[in-house]
């Protein structure tokens, strides 16, 4: 008897399987859609910067950060924006220094300078109040990033960026 009911509902179950699969994929699709929309919006501002590659890299990393925030948080909230902007600036600061000169002879002044350069690329028309805020982030992060860089070889990439996230949150 249960076999007859199973056989009767089988066509309906088979017909609905794509819907179940789509429902499971939809959060990922929504994140991908958000990320693509974020990057597209970010790149509309590229005309104001001289370094398009760094600007685009910042935008991609920033959008990844915002898209990775837990569901239920407001992606456009000032807190999320501040967290993601700070993280991204510090990621690029360390990535750029590492690519340019390596992290072995890193100085706090080099970190501060590179960090401020990133902010200038991201926002070339920065007002003095924001410039001061960004500079404080760079000043706060420099000694912590310098100490972190000394142990770079002891971290996986994931651990390295997690440590940078902690520094960004503290600054």
The N- and C-terminal alpha carbons lie at a distance of 67 Å
Care to count the β-strands?
Answer: 0
Provide the helix percentage.
over 70%
Q: Sketch the topology as an H/E string, one letter per element.
A: HHHHHH
Work out the radius of gyration. 22 Å
How much of the sequence is in beta strands? under 5%
Instruction: Output the number of helix runs.
Output: 6
Mean pLDDT: 78
**Number of domains in the coordinates?**
1
Outline: globular
Biggest pleated-sheet summary: none
Class based on secondary structure composition and strand pairing? mainly alpha
Low-confidence stretches: 1-26
Describe the structure.
The protein has 6 helices and no strands. By secondary structure, the chain is mostly helical. It has one domain. Helix 1 runs antiparallel to helix 2, helix 3 packs across helix 6 and helix 5 crosses helix 6. The longest helix is centred in the N-terminal third of the chain and has 42 residues.
What's the arrangement of secondary structure elements?
Elements (H helix, E strand, L loop, with lengths): L1 H42 L8 H17 L9 H23 L7 H15 L5 H23 L6 H14 L1
Helix pairs in contact: 1-2, 2-3, 3-4, 3-6, 4-5, 5-6
State the main characteristics.
mainly alpha, 171 residues, 6 helices, disordered N terminus, globular
């Amino acid at each position: 008897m249960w076999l007859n009911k199973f056989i009767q509902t089988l066509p309906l179950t088979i017909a609905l399987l794509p819907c179940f699969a789509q429902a499971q994929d939809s959060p990922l699709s929504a994140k991908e859609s958000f990320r693509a929309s974020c990057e597209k919006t970010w790149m509309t501002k590229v005309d104001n910067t001289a370094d398009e590659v760094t600007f685009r890299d910042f935008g991609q990393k920033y959008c990844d950060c915002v898209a990775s925030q837990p569901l239920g948080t407001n992606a456009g909230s000032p807190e999320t924006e501040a967290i993601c902007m700070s993280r991204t600036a510090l990621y690029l600061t360390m990535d750029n220094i590492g690519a340019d000169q390596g992290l072995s002879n890193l100085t706090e002044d080099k970190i501060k300078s590179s960090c401020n350069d990133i902010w200038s690329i991201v926002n070339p028309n920065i007002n003095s109040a924001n410039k001061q805020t960004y500079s404080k982030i760079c000043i706060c992060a420099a000694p912590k990033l310098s100490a972190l860089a000394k142990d770079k070889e002891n971290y996986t990439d994931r651990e390295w960026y997690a440590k940078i996230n902690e520094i960004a949150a503290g600054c």
